[in-house]
Amino acid sequence: MLIVLAFIILFHLAGAIVLFVATIHNAWWVVSPAGRDVIYTDLWYSCNSTCYPVENSHTTEAAYLQAVQASMILASILCCVSFFVFILQLFRIKQGERFIFTAIIQLLASLCVMIAVSIYTAEKKSFHVASLRDGSYGASYILAWISFPMTLISGLMYLVLRKRK
């Protein structure tokens, strides 16, 4: 049982790390113009040799981008809260009970990741100025999609898991 518990904790922490890296790292969109430096764009900045804020990110035209930003931050927070609730429930709930509250929080984190990445996928062209539209998805975008099933599976594991001696 201790091995299963260690696996669940490590899987949750791995999912949280992937989620944090996807949120923070600056490679959601990558543009490689001919003869110039590669431009990496994340949810807040576009960077080549210098970084500058994503154009119009503070306006109502960027409401989609703001929704992606908020959803990824909320998913990161919920994932951390879920881990702390799991540790607390590990010592508080009675033998034989399930980790329902932890599972609900983790499934909400998974839902937030799915919402954020889906919005980014659907509206990617509206986020970027014309010079950046001919790019491709970057590593952070892929990590965000990887963090979705990791948080979902983690939440489902908490639903199934019962406290034992």
Automatic annotation (TrEMBL):
Gene3D superfamilies hit by this protein: 1.20.140.150
Family that this chain belongs to: Belongs to the PMP-22/EMP/MP20 family.
Name of the protein: Epithelial membrane protein 2
Leader sequence residues: 1-16
Main subcellular location: membrane
TM region positions: 63-87, 99-122, 142-161
Gene Ontology CC terms, in alphabetical order: apical plasma membrane; Golgi membrane; membrane raft; nucleus; perinuclear region of cytoplasm
Domain of life: Eukaryota
UniProt KW keywords: Cell membrane, Cytoplasm, Golgi apparatus, Membrane, Nucleus, Signal, Transmembrane, Transmembrane helix
Localization per record: Apical cell membrane; Cytoplasm, Perinuclear region; Golgi apparatus membrane; Membrane raft
Membrane topology summary: Multi-pass membrane protein
Native organism: Salarias fasciatus (Jewelled blenny)
